[in-house]
Amino acid sequence: MSNKNENKIHTMWPIYIGEFFNPEHEEIKDDLIEFFKEYEKKNPKSRINKTGDPVENYNLYESQYNLHQEKNPAFEKLLNFISMGFITMSNNANKASLTNLDNKDPKFNVKLTETWFIRYEKGGVVFPHNHQNCSWCCVYYVQIGKDSKEKNGSTYFLKPYTSANSTDFGGANYTYYGTSVIKGDEGKLVIWPNFLYHGSHPYSGDKNRIIVSANASINLNKVK
Ligand SMILES: [Fe+2]
């Protein structure tokens, strides 16, 4: 029997940001870069948003959001890896809901609603924004130099507690840190929930920073 007066600390709505490393990165990297080069040749104009103004981006080439329809084998391998990462994140964030399911061996349908690549020119950036119509988002570093650092080519996240403004130590964790930064490394996949505002620090290395992004919706497969 549980003790009704037991002290507890609940962690409500924690923010999960995952980092995963692709063991197949070296095998697919050159093919991915070749695929993107060919794509750019066929589609020389970078994607612009619905207003016709690439307002959130600077000094980069961005593909359309339906890259998964191109059927490239290396890219399909990468999307499988990304999908596994999405399921891992969803299962962690939804642990309580999974425990309450009647089905103890649930299967999931990961729908990649949008996938695209970005090739940044030197100093190119994406300004802070979040993603709509999905539950999880990601960035995968296809190419970046070894000189990448926390302020050079990384991905940063803005804290979601916009009204946290206490000045005492007690509120430090919610107040003092406006951003959280994850360094870019080739073969690294970073996943976060869709509501989180994020952007990229400019990269000043010699190689173009090339990334893949994807948005996902994840649903339970119905048991027949
Ligand atoms: Fe984004």
Strand order of the largest sheet: 1-7-4-9-3-2
Put simply, the count of helices is 4
Domain module count = 1
Bound molecules: fe (ii) ion
- Reported CATH architecture: Sandwich
> For the report, how would you describe the main beta sheet?
6 strands, antiparallel
Task: Summarize the structure in words.
This protein is of the alpha+beta class. The protein has one domain: q2cbj1_9rhob like domain (Jelly Rolls, Sandwich), CATH 2.60.120.620. Helices cover 21% and strands 29% of the residues. The strands form two sheets. Strands 1-7-4-9-3-2 form a six-stranded antiparallel sheet. A three-stranded antiparallel sheet has the order 6-5-8, with no helix packed on it. The longest helix has 21 residues, at 73-93. The chain starts with 17 loop residues before the first strand and ends with a strand. The model has no long low-confidence stretch (mean pLDDT 93). It binds fe (ii) ion. Residues 129, 131, 198, 213 line the site of fe (ii) ion (FE2).
TL;DR?
The protein has 224 residues and is an alpha+beta fold. It is 21% helix and 29% strand. It has one domain: Jelly Rolls (Sandwich).
Provide tags for this entry.
single chain, 224 residues, alpha+beta, 6-stranded antiparallel β-sheet, 3-stranded antiparallel β-sheet, 9 strands, binds fe (ii) ion
